[in-house]
Amino acid sequence: MKLLLPKNLRGSFVLCPAAPQDWRAIFKSDDWRRLFMFVGVLVVLLLAGEWLGRNFLFEPPAKWLGDYLLRQRDRVEARVTRIVRIDETDQKQILGGQTPVNGIALVSAVCALIKSSPAVVVVDIDTASEQSFPEGFQMPKMGASVIWAVDADWEPGKRGLNLKSGRVIGGRLPEVPQYGIARMPLGFDGVVRGWERLFVVNGQGELSLPAAAVSQFCKSTANCHESPENSFGREYLFAKLNLSDFIDHVGATVQDTCPAGGTSGDPRLAGKIVVLGAFHSHADKHDTPWGTKYGAELVASAIEEDLNPDGLTHLPTAVKWISKALIALGIATLHHYFRPLWATAFTVLLLPVAVFLSGLAIFYFGDYDLAVVPLVVGILLEQLVTSAEKAEHWTRHAEVHLP
Prior knowledge:
Layout: H1 30-47, H2 49-55, H3 60-72, E1 76-77, E2 81-86, H4 88-93, H5 103-114, E3 120-124, E4 141-142, E5 145-151, E6 154-157, E7 160-163, E8 179-182, E9 198-201, E10 204-207, H6 209-219, E11 236-237, E12 241-242, E13 257-258, E14 273-278, E15 285-288, E16 291-294, H7 295-307, H8 317-337, H9 340-365, H10 372-401
Parallel strand pairs: 1-11, 2-12, 2-14, 3-5, 3-14, 4-13, 5-8
Antiparallel strand pairs: 6-7, 9-10, 15-16
């Protein structure tokens, strides 16, 4: 079987159409029209690459391959973050076991952690309810920066997202303390593979809980390396610390000041970012590439990844676009020199290769939006359409001119 077509029947378009003597003839030339169509489709696929990477039917296998590869990477000991867990026992014996949380007990627990001189304390617990804090409650003077979580209770808004309940400390304080938005983005399959740095809330930018913690930490720390990426690249190991390791009971009131340091401090927390989170609620569990994790673990992992000098570095957009353009030209070259059946077969064989390349991009660079598979499928469809159009043209030509 002869693979190469006669010159006048090859491919869906001519890669380098002859320059017309009159520029107006470009609009009448089938070769130039097909070339413009190819370029137009390529531009659309490049611009829509991130959306296609999240939503396209054939892209999930690449993410699942990336998840598998991430699980093969060695786990890393956390450097700057410590998690203090509130398990079911601590919830009952220290915080009173009530819902919503006992605000007096929670603030007392934060004060107990501040005695160990942490750089930042992140409270990943919802404190929006007025029932948690008595009327007239006054926050003690903290000896360390404290970032409070704002619950992710959202409804769609015209300018991003509208936060239904943005209160911190039950709305009892005249000035809102430092806070971050406690929300993690879910993938198409309900898996959390990264975090957000900034949310648009009521038309204004608001830092996420991990980003707020990192921002505050870097203000007080020299040579702070803050990564521009927001994808989980490895699983971190955190020392198992329970709230009961630092406080065994709380009083009915909160002290006026919560000074840092002292003989009762724990050196494991000194100078670290301490995440205080609940480990007794199934509602705060999330699926990740490494299995089920609690929300506090995700926040701490995001902080570690953000401050990791050896963290993932995404491919520059220019590199992605040039690579995709070369792939598209390669597919077009196949359809230019080979019969449509063979060219289509070769292109379909590229799909598993594209899945593998996308999985490697996730593993090495954290690029979940590479979207090579949608590009291959999109260019293939464009080539098949124009090939069918040209075949129809030559069929009509033969009907008219052949006896």
